[in-house]
Amino acid sequence: MCAMIDSQSAEKISRMKKLRRTLSESFGRIALKKEESSFDEICVTKMSTRNCQGMDSVIKPLDTIPEDKKVRVQRTQSSFDPFEKPANQVKRVHSENNACITARTGSAGKESPKVRRHSSPSSPTSPKFGKADSYEKLEKLGEGSYATVYKGKSKVNGKLVALKVIRLQEEEGTPFTAIREASLLKGLKHANIVLLHDIIHTKETLTLVFEYVHTDLCQYMDKHPGGLHPENVKLLLFQLLRGLSYIHQRYILHRDLKPQNLLISDTGELKLADFGLARAKSVPSHTYSNEVVTLWYRPPDVLLGSTEYSTCLDMWGVGCIFVEMIQGVAAFPGMKDIQDQLERIFLVLGTPNEDTWPGVHSLPHFKPEHFTHYSPKSLRQAWNKLSYVAHAEDLASKLLQCFPKNRLSAQAALSHEYFSDLPPRLWELTDMSSIFTVPNVRLQPESGESMRVFGKTNSHGKGVSNSKH
């Protein structure tokens, strides 16, 4: 009897083990299939150490994020297909690295992109999304250390696009900046952020397909020296803060704000571009590199070696760009090195000490004996045109604070009195709605130009940014 029971028990155990092996193999095949079919499964954690220089131990952001508020960056394919022909077409625009692009809002009830890609072409030879032969290269717009940007045209619907072609080297794999940019942009949908249309991955290249935008803020200011129209400055700054507020609420830092990375459409819509250096600060895996942000727009805390920064990093860049749009010259145009850049900042804002900037003496590169002692000035002494515009000097002073925690946030800046004369409806817009959908909101003609004319993209493609500055 006991032998019979033992035999039955052994049989049951054997069947259970067999079932467990079968289930395990099935789940393994499902996981493998998912990994092979999704671009988003590119493993950022396996990036080579040579691509991650300047990143050490653990992040200690200045702004502590409550556990219940932490969010994971969205990396899944959105159901919004920017190439789908909408019922009501709204021209919107953007470009990557001075390249440019065109887009519009989607129509209600559209199909999922995955469904469309399998069902829409009527012929096997019809162009499809996600395929290299679906786009025609028209002209080169610029070239960087790891990518070349082309103006292109979609063979699917004939719309202009910007093609950022990233060269892949077998021994190094996909550049981590490209992985980061594509991963972040796939989860960001906002009228003031560059729109990523498509991703094409081949053995030799990774191509990011962006909407095509006419020009960028750097080129626009070059065409209109001496400062922009005050009303245009206000609308451009409002859009910049609107885009930053959106990404900061998702705990993403841009980390490379400069006029070349702010694209402007022919209708005046501003879009944040070039997210190659952007970071999701809610993922505590490394400290941040202090080798970020072009020198002229780099905040003093980063110049002094701090790697423990937060959204306040981007807000310093906003202050610099704000002053430059009004005054017509860069706020702090360092000509030599980091020491020269800091001297220019301290000349206006005053040389910091422990009273004005708690903890400054603990920063790696702060040596009081290396800096001339300056007393702070009013900003209008340095940039006289700030005094011509109501509340402009006050807003600039709250953005250009040496002590990072004193800088105004993007959301708070949008509520500043400087914007008090704008229509209240601007604060009620949905994320994907342009500010120019509000009646009577439009850019004014700059001196010597007719309305809606913004010049052409430079032939040499200025603004294709590299991963280092």
What do you see in this structure?
This protein has 469 residues and is of the alpha+beta class. Among the domains are: 92-106 and 129-211, Phosphorylase Kinase, domain 1 (2-Layer Sandwich), CATH 3.30.200.20; 217-262 and 273-437, Transferase(Phosphotransferase) domain 1 (Transferase(Phosphotransferase), domain 1, Orthogonal Bundle). It has helices at residues 2-37, 113-119, 176-185, 217-223, 230-248, 300-303, 312-327, 338-349, 379-382, 392-399, 410-414; strands spanning 92-93, 102-103, 135-143, 147-154, 160-167, 196-201, 205-211, 215-216, 252-253, 262-264, 270-272, 279-280. The strands form 4 sheets. A 5-stranded antiparallel β-sheet has the order 3-4-5-7-6, with helices on one face. Helix 5 (230-248) packs antiparallel against helix 7 (312-327) and helix 7 packs antiparallel against helix 10 (392-399).
